Amino acid sequence: MSQTVDQDAAPGTEQNDGPWLSTLIRSLTSQQLSPLGELLPAFPPEELQRNTTGLSSEAALRQAHAFYDNVLDAARRAGLVLDRSTRALDFGFGWGRISRVFMERISLANIHGLDVDPAFVEITRDLTRSDKFELCAPFPPTKYEDSSFDIIYLYSVFSHLSEEACQSWMREFARILRPGGVVAFTTRHDSFFDFCEWAKGQGASSSPYVQALGQLFPDLSQVREAYRAGRFIHASSQGVGGGGPRDESFYGETWIPEQYARTGFDDQFEFVSGYFDGTKYDQACFALKRK
């Protein structure tokens, strides 16, 4: 994409979506500036977008923006003001989809990222022209100093990590977040058990992932009961592991119920809020504040 910067909205888009979402959507076909005057990143090929998020182009942006709206609400509830100088960490950034949405308020110069996949590091550094998106190991520690960040956000990361990995990373987030800082993450929602049930009934002609998902739990009713009792649910197999650096020893499918989000990390965090609207994105979102 090598067009001139275009700040004029298409007729009607701002009224329907708001100026920032409209700008994000226009950035698919023309270069756009954030409200802070920064050039928005380019996009990777649509196939790569679909392979990582299940969506591409406008649908992928709308989903990311819906998550951003929830995080903004949580930050407000926690008394955290997001502005140009806010120090942010995008954990599991993929191709940088979520961070571009946060550029409405936070300067790209203050957005850092960590991901286990070296291919994503190369792609996102190229798209954003920023060297602050870096490689990390599957488990902490990180190189960052204590209280380095004001906010940490994770989209579709704790929907896959084991309990050991989640707990390890939350302890590290507590170290690198300043007191009063916010961590917001998504995880599988109760309704994803319905998809697992559906997957059980699919034949050999379905995708390997669907077949593996259908075989993940011998007794889904028992697993649902444990989830609704507040237990952390994680399961994996070769078919649902992420491949590459995301192996099934720590990566699979994960459900964190609200009760666990409220109490499972309460030695260092206090629960702020929870969100779910399946019409906007299909994961549950929880936000916690560093004590």
Would you kindly provide a written description of the structure presented here, covering whatever features stand out?
The chain is of the alpha/beta class and 291 residues long. It has 2 domains: 32 residues, no CATH class; 192 residues, Rossmann fold (3-Layer(aba) Sandwich), CATH 3.40.50. The protein contains 11 helices and 9 strands. The strands form 2 sheets. The protein has a 7-stranded mixed β-sheet. A two-stranded antiparallel sheet has the order 6-7. Strand 4, helix 7 and strand 5 form a beta-alpha-beta unit. Helix 8 crosses helix 9. The radius of gyration is 19 Å and the shape is globular. The termini are far apart.
Keywords:
seven-stranded mixed β-sheet; Methyltransf_11; disordered N terminus; 291 residues; 2 domains; Rossmann fold; single chain; alpha/beta
Helix and strand arrangement:
Blueprint: H1 13-17, H2 19-26, H3 46-53, H4 57-78, E1 88-91, H5 97-102, E2 111-115, H6 118-128, E3 133-135, E4 149-154, H7 163-176, E5 177-188, H8 192-200, H9 208-214, H10 220-228, E6 233-235, E7 253-255, H11 258-263, E8 269-277, E9 281-290
Parallel strand pairs: 1-2, 1-4, 2-3, 4-5
Antiparallel strand pairs: 5-9, 6-7, 8-9
List the uncertain runs. 1-15
- What is the tally of beta strands? 9
Major β-sheet profile:
7 strands, mixed
CATH homologous superfamily title of the largest domain: Vaccinia Virus protein VP39
Strand order of the largest sheet: 3-2-1-4-5-9-8
**SSE sequence, one letter per element:** HHHHEHEHEEHEHHHEEHEE
Percent helix among the residues? 25-40%
Number of helices: 11
- CATH domain class of the largest domain: Alpha Beta
Roughly how many Å apart are the termini?
44 Å
Radius of gyration: 19 Å
The overall average pLDDT, rounded, is 94
Number of domains: 2
Oligomer: single chain
CATH topology of the largest domain: Rossmann fold
Q: What class do helices, strands and sheet pairing give?
A: alpha/beta
Keywords: Methyltransferase, Transferase
Domain Methyltransferase type: 89-185
GO biological process, one term: methylation
GO molecular function, one term: methyltransferase activity
